[in-house]
Amino acid sequence: MPSSTPSQNFDVVLIGAGIMSSTLGTLIKQVEPGWTIGLFENLQEAGLESSSPWNNAGTGHSALCELNYSAAGPDGSVNPAKAIGINEQFQITRQFYAHMVEQQHIGAAKSFINPLQHMSFVLGDKHSDYLKTRFEALAPNPLFESIEHTEDLSVIEKWAPLVARGRDGSQRVAASRVVGGTDVDFGSLTRQLTSHIGENGVELNFGHKVTTLNRTSTGWEIMVKDNATKAKRTVNAKFVFVGAGGGALGLLQKAGIPEIKGFGGFPVSGQFLRCTDEEIINQHNAKVYGQASVGAPPMSVPHLDTRFVNGKRSLMFGPYAGFSTNFLKTSSLLDLPLSIRPHNIIPMLAVAKDNMSLTTYLIKEVLKSRGKKDEALREYFPEATGDKWELITAGQRVQVIKKDAKKGGVLQFGTEVITSSDGTISGLLGASPGASTATPIMLELLERCFPKQFAGWKPKLTELIPSYGSTLNDNPALLAEVTAATNKVLDLA
What we know:
The protein is of the alpha+beta class and 493 residues long. The chain has one domain (9-454): FAD/NAD(P)-binding domain (3-Layer(bba) Sandwich), CATH 3.50.50. 33% of the residues lie in helices and 26% in strands. It contains 15 helices and 20 strands. The strands form three sheets. Strands 4, 5, 6, 12, 13, 14, 15, 16, 17 and 18 form a ten-stranded mixed β-sheet that branches. Strands 1, 2, 8, 9, 10, 11, 19 and 20 form an eight-stranded mixed β-sheet that branches. A two-stranded antiparallel ribbon has the order 3-7. Strand 17 and strand 18 form a beta hairpin. It is globular.
């Protein structure tokens, strides 16, 4: 609930109540408990847009099964560096969760994180050869030492029965898995973190939309509209974080910082099939990721995915990509055209020209019938029948378009932190791997925006994250120690 006596001046203003803002607010309250913080969220509750498990955010992304983080190179080899880096980031996130649970700042671990095997599954000779190469590249690394690989369908049936049953035994298949993966309900976690900071002095304002950002001599003047009463109020902040998901691009453009010039956004929507049969749901205990179709964006990688949402076990398959011009599930269809500026039109046109395969893919996805969607499901669950699955609409993702000296513009599928030169405003664009790497991303933001204070914060940050500053893949003993401690607190052992 909003404070009964709203403040007009803050040290920090957080725009958006997703996992990024709630993580940043929590970290700041840990290192600077005396700072005043105001949070403004357009919706009536935290974690309802990109952080909702029904809006794509549902996997503890640690590169254990997501093949786009360890793609084959032109010569067929696999460089494990990106996968290692993402796994390192998630280890930081896990330690942060463990600290919050251990200190009883949030609820029991089971309320937001559960152990779940992560598995990659592919069909055919080419993909099977690739998956074996990937396994051989990852296995020597301490972060992936428990990875297993097989082409034996009977073994795959033990790992994930629904994937193997009814499958043609003459077709070559391959699977890799790591038992020690997790499923994270980021919606639940976001709400718990937001409640925690609200109980510790952060002014929470739900149903409040930020409409304008103007630079002042001491920071930023922010115009906020109360959606219920239509009343407007102006607040001031020394530092602003724009964690508004798809809404971040427009707000950073309104702020007028030079650093946002050349950036645009490409929205991609999606749908999932959600199982309605409890007997089927209870037979699958894994996140099974496959290979993306030619031309498909990385977030459209098909997966048969166990999730725990608000404590209830569920099973989903998808996503089926679509296209809509709004940048948030709850925002306007005018978002895309209104985001066009003289400084980003060339990058956006260049991306349109160079990504015809993506356009073709999206058109095919939009036109795909329910029967075709069921056929895609049966590639991963051969015995599936469509009558036991309901079609749900997932969230919006806005992929980053940025200027490029050679091509004019490129489409980027990762995340991009935009920070003003004076460090008084910062925002996050992009989506993947997103929520799972919120903690390291916010730590990097703190270091970038508060360089004078950061050195003094390191002892506290190391208390929160024991391995902070170390590379776990290069320190197997520390990795084992941290993993054991974290698993115990998070009940993942």
